Request: fold
Amino acid sequence: QVQLVESGGRLVQAGGSLRLSCAVSGLAVNKYRMGWFRQVPGKEREFVVGMSATYSYYADSVKGRFIVSRDNAKNLVTLQMNSLKREDTATYYCGALTGYGDIRTMSDYNYWGQGTQVTVSA
Reply:
């Protein structure tokens, strides 16, 4: 069975950095498109970044601040978040897109982790 487990979320001050990890079992992260989304209660889940085989695509809101990467040996995906803002506060979800779909479209993803909470204080 496919399992995605996010970790690393915590309270951090604005301007600080945080590194999230998504440990994946049941599929190889280098074989599928992987992405990060985030969600605030009462709002729609928002695209953050997605990785195709050759490119990473970032939402404008995080471009220049966040960096996504794969560690194929450990089969995990990381999200390095820098210069954090209060509006980055959200539950962050790791997803895998195993079929055909748009890497920016939440409903196209086939698997999700449980999420990890990131809270950015003023």
Summary: The CA atoms of residues 16 and 53 lie 30 Å apart. The two ends are 40 Å apart (CA to CA).
